[in-house]
Amino acid sequence: MIQELSSAFGREGLFWLVVGLIVLGVVIANQWRKIRQAEIQAALKQDMLERGMSAEEIKLVLEAGQKCRSRSSGQDARAPSGGARPGAC
What is the pLDDT at residue 21? Predict the structure, then answer.
């Protein structure tokens, strides 16, 4: 099969076909991840509303989650070094 594609497109064409498929796969995976994150966050918000949390409490929970994510990815320069406290991110 690869030889058939190679003869139809040439080696350079086959190379760009594979590169294009890889890029397409990365784009699809990234979009899927974003959709799943939005679904999870919407479910979390719905659960918090059903529990009777106020808008301010929901905002605090969501902001705490964003701070944890930025610390774990190394984006927050103010993140403390050393051991984490129990219950911390």
Answer: 97
Residue 52, CB half-sphere, CA atoms under 13 Å: how many?
0
Spatial separation of the C-alpha atoms in residues 64 and 22, rounded to whole Å: 35
Is 62 a domain residue?
yes
Map 42-63 to HEC letters.
HHHHHHHHHCCCCHHHHHHHHH
Does the pLDDT at position 81 exceed 60? Answer: no
Provide the H-helix boundaries in the chain.
2-50, 55-72
- Is pTM, for the whole model, over 0.70? no
Residue 61 lies in a domain: yes
Q: How many domains does the chain have?
A: 1
